[in-house]
Automatic annotation (TrEMBL):
GO molecular function: 1-acylglycerol-3-phosphate O-acyltransferase activity
GO cellular component, one term: endomembrane system
Source superkingdom: Eukaryota
Keywords, ordered alphabetically: Acyltransferase, Membrane, Transferase, Transmembrane, Transmembrane helix
Domain Phospholipid/glycerol acyltransferase: 95-217
Transmembrane domains' residue ranges: 14-42
Protein name as annotated: 1-acyl-sn-glycerol-3-phosphate acyltransferase gamma
InterPro entries per UniProt: Plipid/glycerol_acylTrfase
CDD domains: LPLAT_LCLAT1-like
Amino acid sequence: MLGEILQWIKRRKVVVLVLVFSFIVSGLIINVLEFATLPLYFINKKWFRIINTKIVYLHWCVIPWALESWANSTVDAYVDESVPDPQNMINKEHAIITMNHPGDLDWMFGWVVINKCGRLGGTKAIMKDVAKYLPGIGWTFLFMEYPLLKRDWTHDQSCLVKACENLKDYPVNMLLCLFAEGTRFTKEKHRLSMDFARSRGYPVLKHHLFPRTKGFCLLMKHLRQTGGTIPVINV
C-alpha cells in the first residue's frame, strides 16, 4: 500500500517541479557558502579545497539519490577481471576517468558509480567554458577549479596546462573526468567520425566516435608525475 502511494506521488508533475526547484535553490545556497570560503583560498588553499569538497557534496549527492531512490534506476558496473579491487584502486589515489558520451544524462550514471566509491565531492570534469555562467552548479565549477574549455586550442592548451599545475597538489583524492570523444554521440557525428577514420587508415568504430587525443595526451604529460590510475567507463 505504502509503495503504491509513493509511486503515485512520484508520478505527479507538481512534485517533480518542486524537487527541481529545490535543487536549483539549494545550489544557490551552496554558492553562498562557497563564496564565504573564498578568503580562505588566499590564506590556506589546502583547507579551502577540503571544505569545498564537503560543501559541494551536500548538493551533488542529490543526483545519485534521485536516480537510485526516486527513479529506481540500477547502475551495473562491469570491471575487468585483471583488476582485483577496483573500488580501492580508485579510492587510494588521483585518477583520470575517460568516458564515452552517448546522451545528455550519461554523466549522472557516472556520478552514481563515483558516489559509491565515496569520491563524488572530489570529482572534476573538463567542461565547456559557457557552463560557468549557469547559477548554482555552473558557479560551483569555478569554486571547484574545473578546467573550462572554449574549443579553441590556443586557449584550451594553456587552460589545461594551468589546470594541471594547479591541481597537482590537490589535497583530496581527485577524479578528473573527460569525454574521450569530445562531444555527444549522434548519427551525423558518427558518420563524420567514420569518414575521418577511413581517410586516415584508422579503425572504424561502430558504437563510438573517434577519440580526440590531443587534450588527453597533454593531461598525461603534465599529470604523470602525480601518479594515479586511468579507469575507462563505457556507457
